[in-house]
Backbone:
């Protein structure tokens, strides 16, 4: 069979995402801070984009005393008559001795010249948070270590995790540095008494022992509990610890009070994580019996096309071909960016408006009245695709009378109640939190007890579901919540 080349014409339809559509989808899923960074970058790269300093509404406002434009007419189409100019006359009093006045108030501070070099630099007025590595390195440099100890110390400090624990075995430190194990152990013991005490420990037991020995509590009941009964202490088996050590339970409780003052993770106080403050993308206010939705436009620059380039493009006779193509390309890019931002804001508004309609009970009465909601419900309500709703609700926050929540918070799976109605999973978690909060410390509720109480509240939840929700909320099991005394 011979092979040959042929040309054929085939017609087909395909869905292809244009670059403009990709940009619109990208803007839709950006958070507020990411959107600001994107706008700033586009303004730097596109000369046709500029920030609108004055809103269009303010441009139409005329202040009293402005010069009337020739041919200006009022709303009825009639000529606006000329208004007399308002003048203010001021008369200077003749009975004031201005020479004495100036000599009395002409103090020396008025003659002092300001020199910027006398003020500290901006870098000197800002403070940076010290992390664990720099804090320990500073103490290492301030200590009287020899060369061997200093090299071992640098390697130990460089291999601490964020909680302050040593991640690698001592044998590896000895092998890499080339120094004997005795020198590694000696240097490690010194570093473990640096501030914070207990840093560079290899496990929780060693960390706590270092701290109580630093407080001169070695050989006491506290040390015995940490050494031999740390597992029983975690499970709050105080009776077994007292029986094993042949001491009264009251002594065990007193030792536990001392243990509560120790720090099991000494490195976290020097964590370099910064607090992230949430700025809501949209506000929901209650006005009378209705809820008003207001978008947060603070900090978002209002973009517009530079008028100079538009005029240049209109009178394009003096432009070269490449310059005209460049300006047209940047003009389309700027116009599409502005359009995409407006579309993003409208979509967020519509999604929030739909959520407010579904979750009116939550806005009125709190989290216990949160209804089950899925993306399909909102998508069908506003006639959009579920993926669009998912992108809109990602990293977007709304300020409500009940607090600030991410838009995804309002979407919950449903749990059947005893009577057949659906209950939101977040409402069930809130009920579990309230039950645990009101329990007796000497006899906390088990997961089965919580399940039975929820059934009386018309919520059908299995014991395993209660355990799952409890772990998600960071609530300890009943044996660890129990306080026998």
Residues:
């Amino acid at each position: 069979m011979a092979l040959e080349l042929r040309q054929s014409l085939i017609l087909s339809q395909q869905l292809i995402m244009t670059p403009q559509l990709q940009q619109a989808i990208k803007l839709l899923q950006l958070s507020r801070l990411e959107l600001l960074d994107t706008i700033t970058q586009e303004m730097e790269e596109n000369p046709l984009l500029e920030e609108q300093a004055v809103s269009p509404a303010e441009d139409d406002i005329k202040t009293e005393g402005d010069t009337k434009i020739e041919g200006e007419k009022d709303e009825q189409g009639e000529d606006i008559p000329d208004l007399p100019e308002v003048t203010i006359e001021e008369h200077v009093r003749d009975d004031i001795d201005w020479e004495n006045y100036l000599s009395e108030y002409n103090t020396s501070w008025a003659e002092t010249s300001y020199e910027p070099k006398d003020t500290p630099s901006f870098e000197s007025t800002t403070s940076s948070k010290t992390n664990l590595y720099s804090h320990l390195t500073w103490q290492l440099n301030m200590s009287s270590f020899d060369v061997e100890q200093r090299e071992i110390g640098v390697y130990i400090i460089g291999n601490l995790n964020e909680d302050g624990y040593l991640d690698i075995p001592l044998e590896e430190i000895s092998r890499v540095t080339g120094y004997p194990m005795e020198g590694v152990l000696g240097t490690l013991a010194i570093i473990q008494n640096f501030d914070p005490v207990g840093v560079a420990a290899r496990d929780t037991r060693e960390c706590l022992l270092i701290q109580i020995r630093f407080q001169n509590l070695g050989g006491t009941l506290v040390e015995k509990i940490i050494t031999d009964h740390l597992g029983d202490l975690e499970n709050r088996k105080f009776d077994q610890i007292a029986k094993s050590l042949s001491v009264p339970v009251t002594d065990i409780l007193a030792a536990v009070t001392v243990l509560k003052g120790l720090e099991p993770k000494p490195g976290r106080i020097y964590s370099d994580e910064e607090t992230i403050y949430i700025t809501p993308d949209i506000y929901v206010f209650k006005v009378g019996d209705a809820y008003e939705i207001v978008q947060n436009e603070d900090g978002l620059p209002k973009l517009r096309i530079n008028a100079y380039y538009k005029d240049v493009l209109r009178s394009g006779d003096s432009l070269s071909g490449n310059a005209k193509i460049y300006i047209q390309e940047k003009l389309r890019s700027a116009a599409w960016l502005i359009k995409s931002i407006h579309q993003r804001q409208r979509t967020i508004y519509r999604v929030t408006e739909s959520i407010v309609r579904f979750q009116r009970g939550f806005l009125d009465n709190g989290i216990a009245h949160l209804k089950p909601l899925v993306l399909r419900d909102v998508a069908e309500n506003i006639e959009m695709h579920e993926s669009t709703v998912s992108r809109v609700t990602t990293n977007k926050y709304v300020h409500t009378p009940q607090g600030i929540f991410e838009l995804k918070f309002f979407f919950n799976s449903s749990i059947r109640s005893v009577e057949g109605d659906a209950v939101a999973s977040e409402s069930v978690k809130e009920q579990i939190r309230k039950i645990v909060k009101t329990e007796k410390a000497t006899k906390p509720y088990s997961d089965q007890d919580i399940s039975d109480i929820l059934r009386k509240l018309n919520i059908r939840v299995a014991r395993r579901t209660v355990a799952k929700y409890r772990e998600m909320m960071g609530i300890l099991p009943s044996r660890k919540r129990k306080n026998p005394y």
In short: Residues 55-92, 107-117 have pLDDT under 50 and may be disordered. Residues 414-481 form a domain with the Arc Repressor Mutant, subunit A fold (CATH 1.10.10.60).
